[in-house]
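## retry 2 of 3
previous attempt timed out at serialization; input unchanged, resubmitting
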Amino acid sequence: MKRFDVALSTGQLKEEIIKTADKRFRAFGFKKTAMAEIADDLGMSAANLYRYFPSKLDIAEAFALCCFEEKEADLLTAVQVSMTPSNCLTSYALALLHYNFEQLHDFPKINEIIMTLCDEKPELVDRKIQGELVVIDDIIRRGCIEEEWQVVNVESTSKAILSSWVMFTTPMFMKHKTIEELEERLRCILQLLLTGLEKRI
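## retry succeeded, writing output
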């Protein structure tokens, strides 16, 4: 059995717990992973593990927040200042699709964690959505400043755009489609959206 590293700080230890739980979640799924197994993988007692995370759900929540931060950082690289607002929105939407598709196929048990967190921690859903809306808001504001688009309410428009992408952000809608099929559908939606955003003379 792995020996628990007592030299780790609380922050470092929490990171190790999340990484270790992530491996178990990916291999066996959320429901089939026990706190005792995570503790054993870390070389600590289950009682010690409970000092840092009161439940498996709390570990899953911390894991999800880490994933959100990594995803947001990765997706921001798809949005370049040199691009037109239309190209920014298109690049962001496609990057979001590809990120979600890769997660679904590289981590097929992700839907189990998502459904559990949606039921038990609905505030996490709001956090995920808010992270994606921030980028869309910024792109729309740029489009208005550069007079490419005409938008009355940026916030409500951003929410409507993100809602139109639900098929490309929800595992149960994506799992029976190829990336090519999903991308073709997304491009059709983007064409409609960009036409609707255009400034009227």
